[in-house]
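Title: Prediction job returns without error message
Component: structure pipeline
Severity: low
Priority: P3
Assignee: unassigned

Description:
Job completed but the reporter wants confirmation the result is attached to the right record. Sequence as submitted:
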Amino acid sequence: MTLWFDERMRSALQLALPAALLVLALLVPVLERRGTQAWKRAHTAALALLALLGFGLYTAQNWQNQRYFNPYEFFHYYVGAKYAPELGYTRLYDAALLVDRETGFEHQMRDLANLSAHHGGPEYKRLSAVYAEEAAIRAPFTPERWTAFRADVVFFRDQLAPSMWEQLLHDKGYNATPLWTLVGGALAERVPIQSASGRFALVSLDVLLLLASFALVGWAFGLRAMLFAAALYLTHYCTSHAHFRAAFMRTDWLFALSASMCCLHQGKNLRGGALLAWSVLLRVFPFAFALGPVCVLGWSVLRRADERRRAALRCAAGFAFTGVLLGGASLAWAGGLEAWREFGAKIVEHDQRPASDTIGFKKLFTWSIGFRQDQGQELRANFEERQALWWACQALFVAGLAWLVRRRSLTEALGLAFALVWCLTSPAYYYYAFLVVPLLYCAADLARPTRALGLALIFATSLAARALHGGATFGNYFAFKFSCVIGVLALYLVCSAWFEQRRAPRQT
């Protein structure tokens, strides 16, 4: 099959497309004031062309390999969810290693990731230590379930090169929330991965979720915003790697988050709150986005005459009802709080572990410009010594945003809460697909030069990331530098919102 782009063309487009989108964003205020209908149609056509080229760029590797299936990511979420009752969050790699020994796979490495490290153990453990625990690892399985598990592990292992399989067993394991496990596990139980039609059905879920997201953006914000959003996802550095592509339901949280923004913008506040709760329960860190509407709710309740009070209360009701319903379902499935406790402990441990791909204020606060595998205890101790200052900073950030959004709509509050995501959490760079939220905040009023510049800066972050990228292992302090870049974007959005607020009284 003839490829759309060769390697040289792909490298050029990775820079050219975000740069062109940056220019198109800056042109919008000019077109709104002075542009003719013909120029506006040409602008829309250019956006559509860039989105189409972005689609070719995003899927180029899949065309080259002539398959749309990501076994590395699929293994964690399919096997991790399907066998969660037997494996929990700690035994996935251990049990897979036992399958390797049963089926004659020879390991070149003598250790693997210790998924129980959050209980106080080392980050890696010897293979011999796993073999010694074979009885305990296999005990939760019935003979039929072990046979099915072995078949699934062998299938995924055969899809990867031996070195990649060993690399997989040194990764971070299965880390989905219990709610995601409830849904993903039910699908995995019913759809055999060895079936080509089954794989096609499962791998299509993310495609459908993304298409639905873009369609909702078009409904709520218009064609131009939809094209900008699609182009962002298809061309940005943060979404260019394989973590979400051809994987198993990795974008459901993004669909729920963007759909929430769309519903709030259209005044569907009950649905918007419900979707926001769904996103939080799927991936946790979107709770920082929810703080924006919470601030609006608090202010509107204090000022009883505030016209946004009813909208904020409906949003809160949708959030609370959905949170109780879905959270309760996950508790019933898991048989209590233990699964959520285990998940929480593991996420906290990941947050404290040195990582080359997590982005947020914490990178700057701990000054972790580099990392080593043996540096975890040192960073934890350093952070614990400064925890009081950390929480003081967080309180200041939340108070500042609360004051900024107190008189804004729920949509604007959700968009500006992007700054809190950077301040309060440290998700991996690929989760910055949620840049679509500040993009929609800007796209809602691109006639304002401040919003157009904000949109341009969002595309500029992709150019900055590619300039800072240090290779496959993210060397040259990529995470620290990119955290600074995202921090500049967050600071600009907050400052420009304050500037708009200062000017508003003089314009009324």
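Comment from assignee: result matches the submitted record. The chain has a mean pLDDT of 89.
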